[in-house]
Amino acid sequence: MITAVDTNILLDVFGADVSFGQASANALRLCLAAGAVVACEIVWAETAAAFTEEAVFVDAITTLGISFQAIDREVAISAGAVWRSYRQRGGKRERVVADFLIGAHALSRCDRLLTRDRGFYRSYFKKLDVLDPSLASP
């Protein structure tokens, strides 16, 4: 089982988010117990930006057991097609192409996506298995 992780989950965990930190950490532990957890370069970069030192970020993400998995050409093309469809249907620029890259990566290269942004991913990546820790009961 390969789980792609979204930036919001990692920021919940690293930032000890009051509302979602514990649920996100628990879900991440379950995903790690079930197999590999990976982050594409978009998630890697967005999460790294929350740290003031590169070495601290690398140590933290390595300690969690998250692996880096790059997006390839096919995933990028797929993401572009979905983003184009979103924009043609009147989608606002509130959603940037990075969100579509994360979804396309998870759909193409992983078994599921761990994220709190389930509505967006379920709407545009209907075949993607989305896990949302915010729905877990306390």
Q: Could you state the CATH homologous superfamily? A: 5'-nuclease
Please mark out the parts with pLDDT under 50 across 5 or more consecutive residues, or reply none: none
Strand content of the residues, in percent? 5-15%
Q: Give the tally of β-strands.
A: 5
Q: What does this protein structure show overall?
A:
By secondary structure, this protein is α/β, with parallel strands linked by helices. The chain is built from seven helices and five strands, in the order βααβααβααβαβ. It has a five-stranded parallel β-sheet with strand order 3-2-1-4-5, with helices on both faces. Strand 4, helix 7 and strand 5 (130-131) form a beta-alpha-beta unit. The mean pLDDT is 92.
Give a short overview.
By secondary structure, this protein is an alpha/beta fold. It is built from seven helices and five strands, in the order βααβααβααβαβ.
Keywords, separated by commas or semicolons:
single chain, 138 residues, Rossmann fold, five-stranded parallel beta sheet
List the helices and strands and how they pair.
Elements: E1 2-5, H1 7-14, H2 21-34, E2 36-39, H3 41-48, H4 54-64, E3 66-68, H5 73-88, H6 97-109, E4 112-114, H7 118-124, E5 130-131
Parallel strand pairs: 1-2, 1-4, 2-3, 4-5
